[in-house]
Specification:
Blueprint lengths: L14 H15 L6 E2 L11 H13 L16 H12 L10 E4 L2 H7 L9 E6 L3 H10 L2 E6 L18 E5 L11 H14 L2 E5 L25 E6 L1 H4 L7 E4 L5 E2 L2 E2 H12 L5 H10 L2 H28 L3 E3 L5 E5 L6 H12 L1 E2 L1 E2 L10 E5 L4 H19 L1
Parallel strand pairs: 1-13, 3-4, 3-5, 5-6, 6-7
Antiparallel strand pairs: 2-8, 7-8, 9-10, 11-12, 12-15, 14-15
Bound molecules: D-malate.
């Protein structure tokens, strides 16, 4: 048996596993330390009870012969796909139910979708980037072209007509930088992709944090996107489903390459390799889109947005350059005192007992930057910012 040698081109650990390992080592040495975690983007606020009541009810359904469900419909139950159709209508986007695929989250589908793509495709990825796009393509041995995302382009790289990309990853609002494309900027990407017959894999996992009316929630708000894009979304950050697991992928019928419908290919792939999301989880997911569910999610989002405001205000006071935090739960800051990303990670952990994510873990251009998440608790976030001010305030004065 021969192994997939492409794994040799991956880093030793997935970024967030490496961070967890370093934090665990620190905790072992300092068991008394009150470590505040603003690293991985995991939510802290409990899920709205109305949503979980729908899940409890669905669990009860499984105990009665008249409501028991076995295997569900392959793309997801109509009650959830219908709710998603209505949600998209709110952005002015018409989808047919069979273009929506319910999944266990955006991360899995972003990786799984690569089953549809030949290994010879050239993949255009921004740097810094959510490591899943890079690592899943490295696993398959695809050639990656990196586009520079930096302070000069406000961490929103635009298409280079010379770049010969077949597959393009865009994430807006962006993980890790928090920057978000406007409608006009995204239109340029759609135009470029259609011209090249490339496909955009659009990660919209943070769309519910958008405040700016100029920033689209879905790439399908852009004319022409149906012929060049698939969209991946998740309820992890919208509804606190990081542990419950539910997402959805939209593949329009017009998305065709070499005479094949990518929507049909995705259905074929999913029906072979995936048996769907459990009925109780889909019931809970549908409850997210009811007025009560939306209100519950909004309450939590307000808490995270206030955290983002506090982080941003603290960094402003300390004179630390940063972006994000407005249409996004992530704040992307420059490391103080010219430290590298991992130096600052260690410094912050040892001096302030605060965990963030080193920018270089997201790519070479992330070096010298650092990501903080607004998903902490309000108390933890306030305390973390007080510690940050104590540790780095004087250095900069
Ligand atoms: C992150 O911290 O970047 C995210 O939580 C990771 C994820 O959503 O998989």
């Amino acid at each position: 048996m021969k192994i997939n040698r492409n794994y040799r081109s991956l880093g030793k650990d997935y970024l967030f596993s490496e961070i967890a390992r370093r934090v665990a080592a620190y905790k072992e040495e300092h068991p008394e330390a009150n470590v505040i975690r603003l690293g991985i983007g995991d939510v802290t606020q409990p899920i709205c009870p109305f949503i979980m009541d729908a899940m409890k009810q669905a669990a009860q359904d499984e105990t009665r012969p008249e409501t028991f469900c076995g295997y569900g419909p392959e793309q997801g139950y109509p009650f959830l796909r219908g709710a998603l159709q209505k949600y998209y209508e709110g952005f002015g986007v018409e989808l047919s139910a069979d273009e929506i695929f319910v999944s266990d989250g955006a991360k899995s589908d972003l990786g799984n979708f690569l089953d549809l793509l030949d290994r010879d495709n050239r993949v255009l990825i921004p740097d810094p980037v959510y490591p899943v796009y890079r690592d899943t393509n490295l696993m398959d041995g695809r050639k990656i072209l990196y586009m520079r995302s930096d302070r000069d382009n406000a961490f929103l790289p635009m298409p280079d007509p010379e770049a010969e990309a077949d597959v393009i990853y865009l994430c807006s609002p962006n993980n890790p930088t928090g920057a978000a494309y406007t409608r006009e900027q995204l239109s340029k990407w759609v135009e470029y992709a259609n011209l090249r017959e490339a496909v955009i894999l659009f990660d919209a996992a943070y769309e519910s944090f958008i405040e700016d009316p100029e920033v689209p929630h879905s790439i399908f708000e852009i004319p022409g996107a149906r012929t060049c894009a698939a969209e991946f979304c998740s309820l992890s950050k919208t509804a606190g489903f990081t542990g419950i697991r539910c997402g959805y992928t939209v593949v329009p019928k017009e998305l065709r390459r070499e005479g094949e419908s990518l929507r049909d290919m995705w259905l074929r792939r999913q029906t072979t390799k995936f048996n769907g999301v459990s009925y109780p989880v889909q019931r809970a997911a549908a409850a997210v889109f009811t007025p009560q569910g939306r209100q519950g999610c909004e309450q939590n989002r307000r808490i995270y947005k206030e955290n983002a405001r506090i982080i941003s205000e603290t960094l402003n006071r300390l004179g630390i350059w940063h972006v994000g935090g407005k249409n996004s739960p992530y704040i992307w800051m420059e490391c103080p005192g010219g430290m590298t990303s991992w130096e600052f990670f260690d410094d912050l952990l040892h001096r302030a007992q605060v965990v963030g994510t080193p920018g270089s873990g997201f790519g070479a251009n992330g070096e010298g930057f650092f990501r903080l998440t607004a998903f902490g608790t309000p108390e933890g976030t306030r305390e973390a910012m007080e510690r940050l001010s104590r540790c780095y305030g004087k250095e900069r004065a």
